[in-house]
Every structure is written in structure tokens, then in C-alpha cells.
């Protein structure tokens, strides 16, 4: 038998093998009923509710100059380096529609005047962007600056005590609205305690 004839037989055998595989293995999968999985709607809803669950159980944070509580769902994030008049910082985050950021900064302001806090002064100079309001919460005067130009929740609360000022800023959004963010900010302010005089 010549080499040419052997090559032809091998070639035909390979083509026959490919045709058999295609007819008996691949073709039934292509033309047969499709397979999939059906999810139980209650399982899907349960997963969504767990994802949206927010734990408001108070978690106490005690620093050098201040003490306060935050909801347990808020996770501690690295603090930025303290420079200038900043004497204490606390940062927290929570992930929902977007990341919530809770940043607490305590500054030394010897005059005891809120106007000497650059964060407050900047917002005061831009009334087209920030709306100022004043209230008493837990027997302390609180000034709140709300960003009125963007969606979601963007507020900074300012508390003054002697020669110290606290800037409590909370930015974020939530699938169910801003009520959880408002409650979180109020939890921090109502639990606020000044330490060391």
C-alpha cells in the first residue's frame, strides 16, 4: 500500500470521526431543549433585604477629646494625617448605592469662634451651594451646612466647645432614600461627649 493511499485513509477516518462526534454529541445539544435554573423569588428578595439591611446598633467610639456612637454597620477607615489645627480624626464608611463617608475632625480653635474654622467659613461664603441651619441637639448648639446642589445626602454639622470645634460630615446615598443617613448623623450628634474639659 502506498504512502499516499495510507494518508488518504487516515484523512477519511478523521473526517468520519469528526462527523460522528458532531452528529451524536454536538448536534443534540444545539437542537435540544435549553437548560437553566429557576430562582425562587423569595430567595432573591431575601438576598436583597440582607444586602439593604443596616445595623443601627450603637458602637461607641472614644478618642482623646471626644466620645460618640455610630451605627455598627459603619466600618472604620484609615485616618488622614493630622496637620495644622487638627487634633483628632475619625473616619468611617458604609457601602450602599454609593459609599457613605462619615468624617469627624476635631480642631483646636483658640478663639472658640466657629468663623475661625476654615471648613465652616468656606461654606458660609458660598450660600448658593450650602444652606445653613441652627438647632439645639442634646443641649448643645449645632450648626448644620447642607449641600443643596447635589443628589443624595451631604451635610456637615459643627459643634463648638471652648477652644475646640468638631466638624462632623456625612456624604452618601441610599437605595431607600436619605432617612438612614439622617439617622446616622443624628446618632453621632446626640451621643456626642466632649472629653478633657
Strand order of the largest sheet: 3-4-5-9-8-7-6
Binned, the helix content reads 25-40%
Q: What shape does the CA trace take?
A: rod-shaped
Number of strands: 10
Number of helical segments with 4 or more residues: 4
Instruction: Give the end-to-end Cα distance, rounded to a whole number of Å.
Output: 107 Å
**What structural class do you assign from the helix and strand content?**
alpha+beta
Task: Flag low-confidence runs.
Answer: 43-51
Q: CATH superfamily membership, which one?
A: Mog1/PsbP, alpha/beta/alpha sandwich
Number of domains: 1
Mean pLDDT equals 85
The largest sheet, given as strand count, sense and whether it forms a barrel, is:
7 strands, antiparallel
